Amino acid sequence: MNDFSFDVRESEFDTAVLALSHRVPVLVDFWAPWCGPCRTLKPLLEKLAADYGGRFVLAKINSDEAQAVAARFAVRSIPAVKLFINGEVVDAFDGALPEGQVRAFLDRHLPDEAERLRRAAAGVADPLERAELLRQAASLSGGRTAIVLELVSALLDAGLTDDAAAGLDTVAPAERDGQWDALKSRLGLITDAPNVDEAALLASIAANARDFEARFTLAAAKAGNGAWPDAFAQLLEVVLRDRADARGRAREKLVEWFALCPDARAVADARRQLSMYLN
Q1: 167 and 205 fall within a common domain
Q2: Catalytic residue of the set 26, 38, 97, 223
Q3: In angstroms, how far apart are the furthest CA atoms of the chain?
Q4: Is 261 among the residues known to form the active site?
Q5: Which has the least CB within 10 A, 88, 131, 267, 270?
Q6: Rounded to the nearest 10 degrees, what angle do helices 178-191 and 212-224 cross at?
Q7: Range(s) of the domain holding residue 186
Q8: 149-196 confidence digits (pLDDT tens)
């Protein structure tokens, strides 16, 4: 028995296993006192729960005393071990496997420390704090591409363009996919953003709502500064007010920027307006 393993009664199963598995993977060991292989496997699973230090928890349930749960999850022989993640069985094995095979089973599904940091970062609003967690995750993972790209996105959110560019350069050419391309384009949008007098542009637009070049220039400046709703708003005004070349340019630029914008709500709102203006 340790901090990462516990006994579960049938009446507790939905709370102690299914609900808990939405927060941490739960390995369930169906056993019985009369089962010889169960007596071999149980201490091994308890040892692994302690060794893995919270990457999963072990729930031990006496199948003789929990026949409804055993039937519910098609337990036909014991020991039967099932791994629950997000309320579902994601994998299982029967019998008293040796330690190496059980570790391999666990490692297929359990997040390592780098992945745990990556998941923690996803819930952090501040881009600098998020980037720091992702830096640690990238280092621990040996530069895992998916984590590096999330780090680059956080660095761009924080305005750290030099660090973002360096991060993109660490990704091997063979692993540069569509996400890498989008981040590279987003970096270019920021570094190439025009250095303009926004007040003068706004004054020009106020004097002439059809000054589309001023709107395009202002939109580029806003996008480069990460003010996506404002950037989209300028392009949408062009779509609304023009029926010729400027409308087409604005629509194409909107579609291009939708793929670069990290603000899902801003993209959804702009897409809805674009669809309304075009129909």
Answers
A1: no
A2: 38
A3: 88
A4: no
A5: 88
A6: 110
A7: 113-191
A8: 999 999 999 999 999 999 999 999 999 999 999 999 999 999 988 889
